[in-house]
Amino acid sequence: MRHTLTSAVVLTCLSLVGCTDESRVKALEERLAALEAANKALATEVQNLEFRLEIAGWDRIAYMKPGDSGYSAIRYDLGVVTVKISDIKPYANGSKIWLQFGNLASARVDGLKATIEWGSVDDKGNAQNDRAKSREVAFSEPLAAGAWTTTELVLEGIPPAELGFVRLRDVGHRGIGLRR
Description:
Layout: H1 2-56, E1 61-64, E2 72-76, E3 79-91, E4 94-103, E5 108-110, E6 113-119, E7 133-138, E8 148-156, E9 165-172, E10 175-177
Antiparallel strand pairs: 1-9, 2-3, 3-4, 4-8, 5-10, 6-7, 6-9
């Protein structure tokens, strides 16, 4: 009898422990589901913020393709400057391009500088950013006030036939000149 009673108590305790474990597991699963939902919501919010940052800076990037007509406008600390590719020729192991800048300001801009990126495009015409090259450039030609200024650059490692895009970003300057 004593053995039966002990067995019953042990079985009851085990079943209670089992219930407790089941309820713990269920509670942990519910917490995990809530955390996963919160993580997904945060990931979506991060994506939205990254997109907003990206589009906020679109006016600070000029994206040009060889053969495009017209120009791109780039916002920088003095206002807006326009740029377009006016010519491309083979050069050594790459391409020589001529960029034409339009200075919309009434001041001469000295020491224009920027980051230039270049590369090829895929079959759909999208930039292959993972293969793009980049470097800082400083243009020696001052941008005349209210005029076009043409300058040349050598883009290493890509012949004109493979050059699919040129991007300018982070445009700045060293100084300005005003008439007296």
